């Protein structure tokens, strides 16, 4: 056996190496492996996967998964990096057991870990109480009004308030009071922002209860459950686009003219497509709805970037303003298209990130990719 073959065999026996390192102090491991980085990793992982734990069943299952899937110290470090991001640390073994069931592929593991941790850390409550309350503001004649209601309706209320405020030159707080007290008849209750839909039961759920709870994304930055959507008053006209799950390309969109790639700004068709693909600003952690954002040139127009679908993204005014259009002068990072998805690239190197906001995850390209993965488990698309 050559030295390289011996190294490969040793790395493949991850669980055996962890068992051998179990209980040893870090300096003893370092004396054997000669690499401080490897010694640190071995010492840490041995404590986790061989030491005492409050969940021995999931630990045992994870150990079996490590051997079955061929996980290495590198892939286990990815698992631990995302397990540490959990708000509820008691669910760390759930993450470890789930992620070690996946193949030892760095990109796939990272993509699935992001989605799993984002879901487990989600602040959504299944059935929160709706609230209306008013409180006096100390040392004033003012009161605070607090209303918690259905997300998409509250967003429409705020849009109506902003419009009334602008039309009548009054403060938004006064606009709310005027509208409630009948100074105006109010606005339409129809959903005018676009909603990103899929009818594939493998994605939205095979039972009525699952479909009622499935969350769709609206392009005003809010979300809506299947039950709320079924009960909503929808506008009469609708459109459909067909997306390629591999690269996010639009394969069909009806009744629109062809866009002009030499135009300075996106036309209505371009804006329509981008809002469906990105219901919110694509910058990580931003929740500004696409309705209130701008169509962004990934490669800037002044530097020769074309006004085409492949070169468009959606960014709010703030993030569009700070995006590094000039790559030679990095400061805040910039956007990049990868397989139809909009990634933020750090200014000085590092991991490229998708926006993991709940509404962003309902964008059409991501939905199309999830549909493909659900129907093609042996040919999954990592994202």
UniProtKB/TrEMBL annotation:
InterPro entries for this protein: HNH (IPR002711), HNH_nuc (IPR003615)
Source superkingdom: Bacteria
CDD domains: HNHc
Classification via Pfam families: HNH
Location of the HNH domain: 281-323
Any one GO molecular function term: endonuclease activity
Signal peptide as annotated in the record: none
Name recorded for this polypeptide: HNH domain-containing protein
Annotated organism of origin: Corynebacterium pyruviciproducens ATCC BAA-1742
């Amino acid at each position: 056996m050559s030295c390289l073959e011996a190294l490969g065999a040793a790395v493949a026996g991850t669980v055996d190496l962890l068992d051998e390192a179990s209980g040893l102090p870090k300096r003893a491991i370092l004396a054997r492996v000669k690499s401080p980085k490897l010694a640190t990793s071995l010492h840490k992982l041995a404590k986790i996967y061989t030491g005492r734990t409050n969940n021995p069943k999931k630990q045992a299952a994870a150990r079996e998964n490590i051997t079955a899937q061929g996980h290495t110290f590198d892939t286990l470090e990815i698992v631990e990096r995302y397990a540490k991001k959990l708000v509820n640390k008691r669910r760390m073994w759930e993450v470890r057991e789930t992620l070690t069931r996946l193949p030892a592929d760095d990109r796939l593991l990272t993509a699935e870990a992001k989605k799993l941790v984002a879901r487990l850390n989600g602040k959504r409550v299944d059935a929160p109480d709706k609230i209306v309350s008013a409180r006096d503001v100390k040392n004033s004649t003012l009161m605070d009004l607090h209303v918690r209601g259905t997300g998409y309706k509250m967003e429409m209320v705020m849009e109506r308030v902003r419009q009334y405020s602008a039309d009548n030159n009054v403060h938004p707080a006064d606009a709310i009071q005027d509208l409630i007290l009948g100074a105006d008849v109010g606005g339409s209750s129809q959903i005018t922002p676009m909603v990103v839909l899929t009818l594939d039961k493998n994605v939205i759920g095979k039972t009525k209860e699952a479909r009622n709870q499935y969350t769709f994304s609206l392009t005003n930055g809010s979300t809506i459950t299947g039950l709320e959507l079924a009960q909503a008053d929808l506008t009469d006209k609708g459109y459909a686009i067909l997306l390629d799950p591999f690269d996010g390309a639009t394969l069909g969109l009806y009744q629109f003219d062809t866009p002009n790639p030499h135009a300075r700004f996106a036309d209505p068709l371009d804006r329509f497509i981008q809002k469906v693909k990105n219901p919110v600003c694509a910058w990580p952690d931003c929740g500004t709805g696409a309705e209130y954002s701008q169509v962004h040139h990934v490669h800037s127009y002044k530097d020769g970037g074309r006004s085409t679908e492949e070169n468009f993204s959606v960014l709010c005014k703030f993030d569009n303003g700070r995006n590094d259009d000039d790559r030679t002068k990095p400061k805040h990072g910039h956007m990049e298209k990868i397989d139809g998805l909009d990634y933020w690239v750090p200014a000085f190197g590092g991991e490229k990130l998708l926006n993991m906001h709940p509404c962003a995850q309902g964008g059409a390209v991501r939905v199309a990719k999830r549909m493909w993965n659900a129907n093609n488990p042996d040919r999954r698309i990592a994202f």
